[in-house]
Structures are given as C-alpha cells and as structure tokens.
Amino acid sequence: KSARDRWSDENLLTPIVDFDVLFIPDNSRALGQILAFMKYNEVSKLNYLGTNIWNTPDLPKRAANENASIYFVDALDVSGSADQPADFFKDYLALYGEEPTLAEVQAYESAKIIREQLSAGSSSREELAANLRALGRSSGVTGELRMSSQREIERPIHVLTLDAGLVKKTE
Questions:
Q1: How far is CA 114 from each of CA 105, 106, 135, 148, 151, rounded to the nearest angstrom?
Q2: Which pTM was predicted?
Q3: Residue 72, exposed/middle/buried by CB under 10 A (0-12, 13-18, 19+)?
Q4: What is the DSSP code (8-state) at residue 70?
Q5: What strands, in cross-sheet order, belong to the sheet with 21-23?
Q6: Would you write out the chain's pLDDT as a tens digit for each of its 171 residues?
Q7: Residues 6 or more apart from 42 whose CB is under 8 A from it?
Q8: N or C: which end of the chain has fewer CB within 10 A?
Q9: Could you tell me the sign of the dihedral formed by the alpha carbons of 63, 64, 69, 74, in that order?
C-alpha cells in the first residue's frame, strides 16, 4: 500500500499512437467508455469505426467527444437524409408506436417477396424456390435488393457519421 501511495503521474509513460483508426465491434456504450479513456490519456484525432449497433438514439450522448471522427455502417439510414419510402415507416410507427429496426424491415421485405412470387403464379415449393433463385433485383424498403450468386439478399449499405450531435449520412 505504501508503494501505491507514492505512485505519481511522472511514472506513467505517454501512449504511443501509431495508428489512425480504431475499430470497435461493440455497442455505443463501449464506444463512450473508450472515448473517455482516450480523452483521459490525451489521445486525440482518431477515427473510430463501428457497426450498425451504434445506430441508436443514445449515440450522440455517449460520444460527446468533439475530436472523434465516428463512422459506422447500417442498412437503415435514420439520419433524416434518407430517401426511404415513407409509407412503411409511417405505417409501422402508427401501428406499433416505435421506429422499425432492420429485423422488422427484413421481415417485411421477405414476406413481400414471397407474396409477389405467389401472386405471380408460383404454385409449388419447388417452383417458388426456383423463382426465388432467379429473383435478380427487386425494390425493398430501403432501396434496391439484389439476389447474390450465393442466394442471399443484398441491400444497400450507408456509411453514417456523427456530426454536431446528429447522425448523418457521409457524402
């Protein structure tokens, strides 16, 4: 204990920052803690990269570091600059009292694609599966959807940033 009492800031080494980007595959709470840690240790002017789990209303509160350049990707652009078809979002909000998440958007789009295939005449599982494999491009809630060669739906992804306390789409 006496050694701890004599510890001083002179014994601490300054951090070596030989990188420009820090990828944080965690939520906005972890980002806030890391930003506070970096600020405390006088590490500034870094770019912070994250995933769609940062796209929450509490991001501006947690990332109140003015020197941080924050970028993350999401299929949903809720920044207000999105050209989203308003009907789905308005109807969902009116029905459930909250904004839809990507899971709800994907469920809606999946059901819409199946309904369209059934309306177009798919009458058996095999025929439906064949038509889905040959789907090509179709319109989705957040933009054009495309069937990949691995038979997965691909959607547009947006790069978002935090600018003056607001989530915005990068140019």
A1: 14, 12, 11, 17, 14
A2: 0.71
A3: buried
A4: E
A5: 21-23, 47-50, 69-74, 158-163, 166-169
A6: 566 666 666 667 777 889 999 999 999 999 999 999 988 888 888 999 999 999 888 898 888 766 689 999 998 766 555 555 568 888 999 999 998 888 898 899 999 999 999 999 999 999 998 888 888 888 888 788 888 888 888 888 889 998 888 888 887
A7: 14, 15
A8: N
A9: positive
Angle between helix axes 102-119 and 86-96 (nearest 10 degrees) is 120
In single-letter form, the type of residue at position 134 comes to A
* Neighbour-count burial of 100, counting CB atoms closer than 10 A to its CB (0-12 exposed, 13-18 middle, 19+ buried): buried
How many CA within 13 A on the CB side of residue 24?
22
Cα(118)–Cα(116) distance, integer angstroms: 5
**Alpha-helix residue ranges (DSSP H) falling in the chain:** 2-5, 28-40, 59-62, 86-96, 102-119, 125-133
C-alpha of 145 from chain center: 17
At 133, list the tokens.
């494999």
State the burial class of residue 10 (Cβ atoms within 10 Å of its Cβ: 0-12, 13-18, 19+). Answer: exposed
Tokens coding 100: 């839809």
